[in-house]
Amino acid sequence: MRLVITNAADRTLLTSLVNSTTAANRGFGNVGAPYALFPRGQTVAQALRPFPQFSTIANYWPPLGKTWYDSLQVKATKRLSHGLSFTSTFTYSRSLIMGGEREANFGTDATGSPSADVFNRPNSKHLSGFDIPFQFILSAQYQSPQMHLGNGIANYILSDWTLSTLLQYQSGLPLTVPSAQTSPNLSALVFQSTVANRVPGQPLFNNNWIDNTGKVRTDELDLNCHCYDPQRTLALNPNAWANPPAGQFGASPLYYTDYRSQRRPIENLSFGRNFRFTEHVNLNIRAEFSNILNRAFWNDPSGLTNAATAVAKDPGTGVYTSGFGQLPVASSTAVNTSSRGGTIVGRVTF
Description:
- It is a single chain.
- This protein is mostly beta strands.
- Helix content is 8%, strand content 28%.
- It has five helices and 16 strands.
- It has helices spanning 8-14, 21-25, 44-47, 152-158, 186-189, and strands at 66-81, 84-98, 126-127, 134-143, 162-170, 197-198, 209-210, 216-217, 241-242, 266-276, 282-290, 312-313, 320-322, 329-330, 333-334, 341-349.
- The longest helix has 7 residues, at 8-14.
- The relative contact order is 0.12.
- The model is unreliable at 107-111 (pLDDT under 50).
């Protein structure tokens, strides 16, 4: 007998227990159990699996996919002259995947992110979750020259300081498309999940949000603008996603290039000097700073897998505690994941 998951009667059959009247009427009752001791509390769908005795068969490190990486890479180098040297690179790239996004973590996570339709893999080539289309990195160093101020002590103190920086600017990583919440879910029918469909014309990010001044904005939110109140803003638009019809795989890929997390630049600065007093006595002083411009970085929005996540607020503060696209907060204070920091070190060797 051929079953079609787009047929409502067949979906009901697959989710029915093997000892149910529905299964018996369709010829899939106790008599149709795959082996004598098959638990009668399992579904018909479980009974039809290739290995019905297992509810989960973890896939560890199988070659289940293909990857593509294409890029334009440019590198500029200035060798040391007049105290300045630097190396800079720019990469314009595109990463694609077909099949499993990554290998599983043995013993903890038995799943990589599958393609939208694992039974039609050739049509599931899509953007990789590690795609970074633009990346610029600069590593530079400058050493101050010998000073000639007419004072030997001042010349010694102010000369030969080294100033270094590491700057990295790149696109944010793609956000995962929400999972389909169609009932019954495909995981109950064919033991494979799928994704929601993107709604044409709907903005991906919220167009009803609160900025830093408390004003309600109706333009589409930009996660990189640093202009929103992360405590009272849901970053994502649930209306941008719709569930596929029952028994069908979603038509969306796992990632879209215009649906990305916040950019998080790396801007580090350091300076220092080595003072040699005698042949065996040295004083090294250095200061190292990270996120020198004190940019605010938030963790990725929560609730990414379900666009229908219930919205809840703290009744006392009005801070969102759940919802599709809720930004991470602790009590009533938003958490900056990487605030400016600095370290000053002095070291004497003798």
